[in-house]
From TrEMBL:
Domain Cyclic nucleotide-binding residues, every copy: 26-146
Organism of origin: Ramlibacter tataouinensis (strain ATCC BAA-407 / DSM 14655 / LMG 21543 / TTB310)
GO MF annotation: an example: oxidoreductase activity
The organism's place on the tree of life at top rank: Bacteria
Keywords: Flavoprotein, Oxidoreductase
Protein's name according to its UniProt entry: Bifunctional protein: sensor, cNMP-binding domain-like protein
InterPro entries listed in its UniProt record: cNMP-bd_dom, cNMP-bd_dom_sf, FAD/NAD-bd_sf, FAD/NAD-binding_dom, Ferredoxin-NADP_redctase_2, RmlC-like_jellyroll
Length: 559
């Protein structure tokens, strides 16, 4: 097996966070008995050396178990040079997470010597993982680690070139990161290699940011939809297909609904406008979610749930927003923003909510230029050694403040109320109180933001004393309130005065068959988008799992 060499001449100590250091899990060698069981699902083949078994950019590729010989996994770097980074030997296997979906694969594979293999077409592979749980556990762990390895080492991905603090660059990087797509950022403001890459492709600063795909394709400041299409992250929807269930939104509630629906045999599709995880996916660490005593990032939780749903057969249509619901006839039709349509007998609305914006003149020009609505590693790298402001008193704001305090010179938390106790979990309140690099400012709100092409300073005012403070803050994190993502539902479902979906009772107050039932039969709402819901990850997951019982009752009323 060939692993990426460490930089420099001297061997570097093993990085415990590097999945390639966990060789027995990322590239396991199966027992002879397991290999024999896998062979029963596929067909034996003898292949000469140099046979290409799959190529980057293909969809729905086969799974291979090596019996004799080897399969080399390779890719082209940004200069078009071939690079072999893994070789699978006897009783090892190919594949990573894209075996569970219909996206374009990230790497190529070929036999390194004359080889005997077992080939499993995708349908047989999916039958294997649902029928052999002990083998599936080994495969799933390896696939997840392999994707993490590709991301950490920027293998099989793209190169993003642009100013690291520019809004367009951040938008593209955020989309790639949240969708688990390997990439390397060349910051033209700081990276000495960026100039050479620009000259190599005949580019200048006016064309940035650009994405270099497969060492040759240049995408000049693409929109999210275009980028997703070019990288093969999107899957075409068959307009003639009628699904049992369409889930709109891939946050915790939507993914839970997809997992339970697909695992119980419902033909399920999930439609998501941006990336799995929803608002929770932007959280640096969730520490009070059951079963994760050391915490888990929102993105990691969403990534695992996405794979889990796909393992049971759910389809995910990513980077496609739902523009409207045609609710006059059944099956229901979801109109997507790209003109496609999804038809389903039942619908679960799980589009969640978004943070409110500041009601200040001209502040929207700082979106992505110092004004952020998430606090992940990507945003944290912009804050090194600087003062930052977090606005909000909920758990998301507390998690963001503590996470950013590791890199920022100081974190200022602004809340309009008396304190945090009424809106934030106690463990976060106590950490904030003990932190020397975090200061809470009660009864305070931002009253001015100053800057040129990006944010340069912030003024906040104490609402009772009228005293104002201006600080050289270039990054503000807004985590205030919640506005439901329900514009696409108006005219179809009953909404409350704040725009959240009304569930559980009809217009006359009579109880509906499910607490998650809406005014439209067969359309349900779960998670943050539902009026009166508890805005917590765990409650969203619970609602998403429980609602499937009501979906079954609607689809099979006689049962």
């Amino acid at each position: 097996m060939n692993l990426p060499p460490p930089p420099g001449d001297e061997p570097a100590p093993p990085d415990p966070s590097d999945p390639y250091a966990r060789e027995a899990q990322i590239f396991p060698r199966l027992t002879p008995a397991m290999a024999e069981r896998i062979a029963a699902y596929g067909r034996h083949e003898r292949l000469p050396a140099g046979t290409v078994v799959f190529q980057r950019g293909q969809r729905s590729v086969d799974f291979f178990l090596v019996l004799e010989g080897s399969i080399e996994i390779f890719d082209l770097d940004e200069h078009g040079r071939e690079r072999v980074f893994t070789t699978h030997g006897p009783r090892q296997f190919t594949g990573e997470l894209d075996l569970f979906n219909d996206r374009m694969i990230l790497v190529s594979g070929r036999t390194g010597a004359a080889s005997e293999v077992v080939r499993l077409p995708r349908t047989d592979f999916l039958r294997l993982v649902t029928s052999e749980p002990d083998i599936a556990e080994i495969l799933m762990r390896a696939f997840i680690l392999r994707r993490v390895g590709l991301i950490q080492h920027a293998q099989g991905g793209v190169v993003l070139i642009g100013p690291g603090r520019q809004a367009d660059t951040l938008t593209l990087q955020r989309f790639l990161t949240r969708n688990g797509y390997p990439h390397r950022l060349l910051d033209t403001d700081t990276d000495p290699d960026a100039g050479g890459m620009l000259r190599c492709f005949g580019l200048d600063a006016t064309q940035l940011p650009v994405v270099i795909a497969q060492g040759e394709r240049v995408l000049r400041n693409p929109g999210i939809g275009e980028l997703a299409d070019q990288l093969g992250l999107t899957e075409r929807v068959d307009a003639a297909q009628v699904y049992d269930l369409a889930v709109v939104g891939a946050g915790p509630a939507g993914l839970a609904a997809a997992v339970y629906a697909a695992s119980e045999g419902l033909k399920t599709i999930v439609v998501e406008a941006s990336a799995p995880g929803g608002q929770a996916g932007t959280s640096s660490k969730i520490e009070n979610y059951l079963g994760f005593p050391t915490g888990i990032s929102g993105q990691a939780l969403a990534g695992r749930a996405q794979v889990q749903a796909q393992k049971f057969g759910a389809r995910l249509a990513i980077s496609r927003a739902v523009a409207g619901l045609e609710c006059e006839d059944t099956p229901y039709t979801l109109r997507l923003d790209d003109g496609q349509a999804v038809r389903a007998r039942a619908v679960v609305v799980a589009t969640g909510a978004r943070y409110r914006r500041l009601a200040l003149p001209h502040c929207t020009r700082f979106d992505g230029q110092g004004l952020h609505y998430a606090a992940t590693a990507m945003e944290a790298r912009l804050c090194g050694g600087e003062e930052v402001v977090v606005v909000g008193g909920g758990n998301s704001a507390g998690q963001a403040a503590m996470y950013l305090s590791r890199v920022a010179a100081h974190v200022h938390i602004l809340v309009r109320g008396e304190g945090l106790a009424a809106t934030m979990s106690d463990y976060l309140v106590q950490r904030i109180a003990r932190s020397p690099t975090v200061t809470l400012h009660p009864h305070s709100e931002i009253t001015a933001m100053q800057g040129d092409e990006r944010l340069r300073s912030v003024t906040w005012t104490h609402r009772r004393t009228g005293e104002s403070v201006t600080r050289p803050v270039t990054n503000v994190f807004l985590m205030i309130g919640a506005e439901p993502n329900t514009d696409w539902l108006r005219g179809c479902l009953a909404l409350d005065d704040k725009g959240f979906v009304v569930t559980g009772a009809d217009a006359d107050g009579r109880a509906l068959p499910s607490p998650y039932a809406t005014s439209q039969p067969g359309v349900f709402a779960v998670g943050d988008v539902r009026s009166g819901s508890v805005k917590r990850v765990a409650s969203g997951v619970g609602e998403g799992s429980v609602v499937i019982q009501a979906v079954h009752r609607f689809l099979s009323p006689a049962g």
